[in-house]
Known about the structure:
The chain has helices at residues 14-17, 32-53, 56-87, 89-93. With 96 residues, it is mainly α. The chain is elongated.
Amino acid sequence: MYESRRSQYGRSDVPYLNRDKIEIPDVHKTPLYSILNITSSAGMLIAIWTIVYYSIWAAVLGVSLAYLGKSWYLDRMVWLYEMMKSENDEYRKWDF
């Protein structure tokens, strides 16, 4: 049965957090995850800054950066989960 990517976000970061115990594929050993988290954090800081200075354009920029960074990060986490599910029995058990 087809399951949407959005419904997998809840469990998708566990393979990345377990990367010290269960090795992840080489394609996912990249600093991109840190860059995406920094981008979304910077966007959130810009959005918070706009509360003080009432700048609508900075608010739009900040929220857009936060949303873009976090969405891309979640997409990569689901991709990692799907790869690990096909390679590892422990993650395969989670599929229902």
